[in-house]
């Protein structure tokens, strides 16, 4: 089933996108920082969410991992 139609899969994809963008931002600063608007601005926004809300993102990742493995 597609991740769009399954809510748990959609949340997993969003968390993976946030974590990946936050990880890649220090490595490719010029690529993400020059595209703050438009379609590529989504990656910059996800990187900012991952940096500023990192404790909440970490808790969400742990909860999602627990729910995928045990539920």
Automatic annotation (TrEMBL):
InterPro entries: KISH_domain, Ksh1
Pfam families: DUF1242 (PF06842)
Bilayer topology annotation: Single-pass type I membrane protein
Entry keyword annotation includes tRNA processing: no
One of the record's GO cellular component terms: Golgi membrane
Keyword annotations of the record: Golgi apparatus, Membrane, Signal, Transmembrane, Transmembrane helix
Compartment(s): Golgi apparatus membrane
Family per record: Belongs to the KISH family.
Function in brief: Involved in the early part of the secretory pathway.
Annotated PANTHER family: PROTEIN KISH-A
Name of this protein: Protein kish
Organism: Vombatus ursinus (Common wombat)
């Amino acid at each position: 089933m597609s991740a769009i139609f399954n809510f748990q899969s959609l949340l997993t994809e969003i968390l993976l996108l946030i974590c990946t963008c936050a990880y890649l931002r220090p490595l490719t600063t010029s690529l993400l920082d020059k595209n703050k608007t438009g379609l590529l601005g989504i990656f910059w926004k996800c990187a900012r969410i991952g940096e500023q809300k990192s404790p909440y993102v970490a808790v969400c990742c742990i909860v999602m991992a627990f729910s995928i493995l045990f539920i």
